Structures are given as C-alpha cells and as structure tokens.
Prior knowledge:
The chain is mainly alpha-helical. It has helices at residues 7-21, 27-37, 42-66, 71-91, 106-114, 117-127, 132-151, 153-192. The chain contains 8 helices and no strands. It is globular, with a radius of gyration of 17 Å. Keywords: Cell membrane, Membrane, Transmembrane, Transmembrane helix.
Amino acid sequence: xxxxxxxxxxxxxxxxxxxxxxxxxxxxxxxxxxxxxxxxxxxxxxxxxxxxxxxxxxxxxxxxxxxxxxxxxxxxxxxxxxxxxxxxxxxxxxxxxxxxxxxxxxxxxxxxxxxxxxxxxxxxxxxxxxxxxxxxxxxxxxxxxxxxxxxxxxxxxxxxxxxxxxxxxxxxxxxxxxxxxxxxxxxxxxxxxx
Length: 194
C-alpha cells in the first residue's frame, strides 16, 4: 500500500476547507451560542465534525452513485456552492439563512456550522482532484484549528475585533472564489467529454 503525500495538496485542501468552514467568521455565532447556553463542548463538537467529514469523504461517492450522479457533476455543483459562499463572505450578505439553533450541542456546531453542506460538497470536489490521504490530513489540520478557535473564541474576538474578523473573512472569500472558478473549469470539461 503506497501513500501519495503531497505537501502542496495538503496545503491547498487545508486552505479550501479553512475558507469553507470559516470558523473565524463564525466566532460571533459561537459567542452568541455561548452566551445563550453557557458552555460549549469544544472537544465533542470537533471530534463529531471530523467523523462526519471523513465518513462523507469515503461514503459520499457511493451515495452519489446510488442516486446516479458522478463526481464531476457533484464537483461542478460544489463549485457553485463554494462560489455563493465566497460572495456571502466578500459582500457581507446572507444568501442562505438557517434557523437559529436553540442549544449549543453537537447539532448546531459540529453540523451544520463546521461540517455543513459547503464543507461536505467541498470534500467531494477535492476528492475529484486530490489523493484521499492528503484530504484527511487537511481535515485533521482544520479540526485542530477549529478546536483551538472554539476553546478561545472569547479571547479571539477581543484580539481581532469586529474589523479584523471582517478583513479575514473577505480575504478568504476571494481565495474561495478563485478556488470555485478553478474547480468549475477543471470539472466542466470532464462532463462534456463523457
């Protein structure tokens, strides 16, 4: 069994997931949840989110095959979702509004905040281009970062301030938009060449 570890793939996949998960942009939501329900179980939320992402990475393609959709089609659809997420981040608008969670348990934080539709779509889109072991390492890198942010969300809000969080969100929005365009271009040809 050979492993195809590639630092460049790990770094790119990590950046894509970091931008899609947007844990820094979610700090206001996390702080709001913390104020409402008190304690947030950072460890539990991080582990459950990681399990959801890894499971979807391996089973997502089989689920798609079951309903008759190929990975390239899903990647193109994923490119659209990532594109709209980028627009939300850059312009500061809300295209998709989810109902407000009532408790800060696994459900609002692990899913859909961390391992939401955008993240799961991105994982399958990444799988169309990168080796699985590099994506798993990218998931681990992001989950460690997510855990650290969840643990120190109040401190981070004080350090970065509202303006700092907005700048970070916009920068990652632009990166995400470029990734969406690349993903679309790479997979649209495969759809027409079938």
